Amino acid sequence: MGAAVEAEARNAVAVEGPVVHVPDLRARIERAVSGSVDAVVACFPGEVLPTSAAEFQRLEEMLVATAHHEVVGPVLSVVLHAVNESTELCRW
User: Fold this and answer.
1) b vs e for 38-77, b when ≥16 Cβ sit within 10 Å of the residue's Cβ?
2) Quick one: which of 62, 24, 30 has its CA closest to 43?
3) Residue 32's CB: how many other CB atoms inside 10 A?
4) pLDDT per residue as tens digits for the range 40-77
5) CA–CA separation, 28 vs 34, rounded Å?
C-alpha cells in the first residue's frame, strides 16, 4: 500500500450506520475502468507534450473531461449497482 493511501486510511472518518461490505468491489471497479487508458492516451494527439500554457490548459481540460466520463461515471455506476443489490441498507 502506498504512503498516500496509508495516510488517507489513517485520516478516514468512522462511518455511522451499516457498513456494507462488497467482497468484489475492487474487481468490479477495475472492470468498469479497464478501458480508460485508451481515452487518456487519446488526449495526447501525435504523442506530443504541451509546449505552452494554453496547450497545457487544453490538455488539463481534456483529461478532466475524460476522467469524468471514463472513471467517475463508471465507478459511480458500480457503486449504485452495489447499493441496489445490498439488503443491509434496506434494513437501515
Assistant:
1) ebeeeeeeeeeeeeeeeeeeeeeebeeebeeebbeebeee
2) 62
3) 19
4) 999 988 888 899 999 999 999 999 999 999 999 999 99
5) 10
pTM of the model: 0.64
DSSP assigned state of 68? I
For residues 55 and 51, give the distance between their C-alpha atoms in angstroms, rounded to a whole number: 6
Give the type of residue at 30: E
* List of residues 6+ apart from 18 with CB closer than 8 A: 88, 89, 91, 92
Q: Helix or strand or coil: residue 23?
A: coil
